[in-house]
Amino acid sequence: MITVKGLNKSFGDLHVLKNINMNVDRGEVVVVIGPSGSGKTTLLRSLNILETPEQGEITIGDQSIDFSKPVKKKQVVEFRKQTGMVFQNHNLFPHFTALENVMEGPVTVQKISKAKARERAADILTKVGLGEKLDSYPHQLSGGQQQRVGIARALATGVEVILFDEPTSALDPELVGDVLDVMKELADEGMTMVVVTHEMSFAEEVADRVIFMDQGAVVEEGPPEQIFQHTQEPRTQQFLNRIRK
Amino acid sequence: MKMYLSNIFTNPEMQDKYMDILVSSFLPLVKGAFYYTIPLTLITFAIGLVLAVLTALMRLSNVKAFQWIARSYVSIIRGTPLLVQLFIIFFGLPSIGVTINPFYSAIIGFSLNMGAYNSEIIRAAILSIPKGQWEASHSIGMTNFQALKRVVLPQATRVSIPPLSNSFIGLIKDTSLASTITYTEMFRKSQEIAANNYEFLLVYSEAAFIYWVICVGLSFIQDRVENRLDQYVAK
Ligand SMILES: Nc1ncnc2c1ncn2[C@@H]1O[C@H](COP(=O)(O)OP(=O)(O)O)[C@@H](O)[C@H]1O
Ligand SMILES: [Mg+2]
Prior knowledge:
Chain A: It is found in: Cell membrane. Chain A: This is Cystine transport system ATP-binding protein. The complex is a heterodimer of chains A (245) and B (235). Chain A is an alpha/beta fold and 245 residues long. Chain A has a domain at 89-159. Chain A has 9 helices and 10 strands. In chain A, the strands form 2 sheets. A 6-stranded mixed beta sheet of chain A has the order 6-7-8-3-9-10, sandwiched between helices. A 4-stranded antiparallel beta sheet of chain A has the order 2-1-4-5, with helices on one face. Chain A is globular. In chain A, 48% of the residues are buried. Chain B is mainly alpha-helical. Chain B has a single domain, classed as MetI-like (MetI-like fold, Orthogonal Bundle). In chain B, 82% of the residues lie in helices and 0% in strands. Chain B has helices spanning 2-10, 12-60, 64-78, 82-92, 102-128, 131-139, 144-174, 186-197, 200-228. In chain B, helix 2 packs across helix 5, helix 2 packs across helix 9 and helix 5 packs across helix 7. Chain B starts with a helix and ends in a 7-residue tail after the last helix. Classes of the chains: A alpha/beta (245), B mainly alpha (235). The A-B interface holds A 48, 50, 73, 77, 80-81, 83-85, 87, 89, 91-95, 104-105, 108-110, 137, 139, 153-154, 156-157 and B 130, 132-133, 135-136, 138-144, 146, 150-151, 154-155, 158, 231-235. Bound molecules: adenosine-5'-diphosphate and magnesium ion.
C-alpha cells in the first residue's frame, strides 16, 4: 500500500530524514516510535506531502511521486486524496460545527451532494461516539472529542490510509482512552494506519509492526514483541528504558 | 465668545434665532448625509473591499509581477495625501482630456484609497490564520484555492472586522474631503448654508454632530456583528 524509497529531507543544514525506506501493506498498522526530534512528524508529513523531501520516492496505492524531479501541484493534490491525516493539535476548522468539519471533504473535494454528505458525516461521527455532538463547534468540545472529530474528518472522504501524528499527546490522561478505542476499532476494521505515538501499550496491543527511529534514520523495525521484549539495539533499549520509567 | 454664549443663555430673541437656524438647516444636512455622504461611503467601501482582497491576494501570490504591482499600488496611495489624489483626478486629469464629474471622481479616489489601506488589513488577517488550517485543508484533498475560499478567508474575515470597521468610520469622515472637488455631500451642504447665514460655528457643529451620530451607530452595529461571529475564531 505504501512504499518509501531512499527518502531524504533537510531543513537548511539540518538533515532530518536520512535515507528512509519503509513499506506498509494494505490493512497493516505500523507504529512509529522514537525520541523527540528524531523525524517522526517530518516522515508522516512527507507521506501527505505537507513537507517536500529533496530526494526519494513515495508510492501510495497506484500513485508515485519521485522527489528528485519537479513535482506538479496537481499531482500532489491527487496524491493526498488517498490519505487522511490526524494532527497532534487536531487543526479542526473553528468556524464549522463537528458535522460541517466532517462534511467539508466530501462536499468541497468530492462534490458529493450536501444531503448525502450530511448523512454520511453523521454516521461517521456516531461511530466515533459523537452522535450527540453533531452541531457543536470545536471550542465547545473536550480535547478528546475534538480529536475524534479530527479522525472522523480524516475518514470522511473514504481514504484507505490514515496517518496519525501523536493524536493523544496533547490530551488530558483521562481522555486518551476514548481516542485510542476509536483507533483500535479502525484497526480491527482493516484500515491501513501509520501511527506516531508514545502510547506503548497501544503499540504492543494493536501494531502489526513497530518502527523505531532515531536521529532521522530507521534504527530497527519488527513485530511489537521483537521491539519491546527482545531488542538487540542498544539505542532502542535506551529509549524504551526512558519511556517506561 | 463671551457675547455669543451670554446671548444663547440670556437673550430669548437670540435663542429663537439660533433655534430657527438649527431646525431649518437640520433637514438639508440630514438629507446630505443620507443622499450623498452615506451612499458615497457604501459604494466606495464595497469597491475598495474588492480591490483590497485582490491586492492582498496578489501580494501573497508567488507571481513576482503580481507582488510588484500590488506593492507599488499600495506604496503610491499610502505615500500621498488623499486630498492631493482627489485634486489630481478632478482638476488634473482634464489637462490630458480626461474629465470626470465630481461624483465619479470621488468614487475613484476613495475606492483606490480604501483598496490600498484595506489590502494591508486583509493581508495581515490571512497571515494570522494558523498554518495548521491550510495543512488540514490540504490533508483532506483541497486545492489552495478551495482552502482559501472555504477555510482561510471566512476566518480572516472575522479577524479583519474590527480594523475594517475603523477604516469604514474613517472613510465616512474622509468623504467630507469630496466637498473640495465640488461634490455636494453633507459637509459642502453645511458650507453653503453657513455662507448664507454666517453662523459658521453653529452650522459646522451641527454637521459634526451628525457625523458623530452616524459613527456611534456604526460602532454599535460593529459590536453586535463581532459578537455574533465570535465562534469563527480559532481558540
Ligand atoms: N519546519 C521546520 N523548520 C526547521 N526545522 C524543523 C522543521 N520541522 C522540524 N524541524 C526539525 O527537524 C527535526 C525533526 O523534527 P520532527 O520530525 O518534528 O521530529 P519528531 O516528530 O520525531 O519529534 C527536529 O530537530 C526539528 O527541530
Ligand atoms: Mg512530532
